Amino acid sequence: MRGNPPGQVTELLQAWRGGDQGALDRLIPLIHAELHRLAHHYMLGERPGHTLQTTALINEAYLRLVNASQVTWENRAHFLAVSANLMRRVLVDFARSRGYQKRGGDVVKVDFDEDRIPSSGRGADVIAVDDALEALAAFDERGARVVELRFFGGLSESETAEVLGVSTRTVKREWASAKAWLLREIDGQGGA
């Protein structure tokens, strides 16, 4: 994807929003490698024998994207952020459907490391991070969006700043603050 002109992706996104259903079909091959990278990182930490595979995660996200044609797509980074959010939702829905506890003894601490895109971990981990992120969004919506874009979307600080329409410095500050809060929140869940 990074080899494709960003304007080409933006044009296809806008054409798709304008009703050109073929634009999505032309867009997917351009961003397939990025979607695969996102899905692969999500699936790395899943338990052995997990029935949801990388390709299935991409396909499920694609099906949900088809219904998102009225989104006001801004650019490639915005599209990847929405895709990452959809993949996160798929994994959370899958984990919840498999009977994982919402909170409690099965929760394992998830390490936030900004030098790499962490995997989502086992189903209980996905749920714990999702619950903590929802709690953060209740009082710090932008901080939650920064975490979602960086942690789940794998976007750089500058890409995150572009999507949110803020400075890179603001993203750095929000990222540090939100990570600290989420780690305390997840530690509190695991210790309860």
Describe this structure in words.
With 192 residues, the chain is mainly α. The chain has one domain (6-191). Helices cover 69% and strands 0% of the residues. The chain has eight helices and no strands. The protein has helices spanning 6-17, 21-44, 54-66, 76-97, 123-139, 141-152, 157-164, 168-191. Helix 6 (141-152) packs across helix 7 (157-164).
What's the gist of this structure?
The protein has 192 residues and is an all-alpha fold. It has eight helices and no strands.
Helix content: 55-70%
Number of structural domains: 1
| Rg for CA atoms | 17 Å
Label the overall shape. Answer: globular
Structural class: mainly alpha
Number of helices: 8
List the secondary-structure elements in sequence, H or E.
HHHHHHHH
> What's the story with the biggest beta sheet?
none
In terms of per-residue confidence, which ranges show pLDDT below 50 for 5 or more consecutive residues? 101-110, 112-122
How large is the share of residues in beta strands? under 5%
**Count the strands?**
0
Mean pLDDT: 75
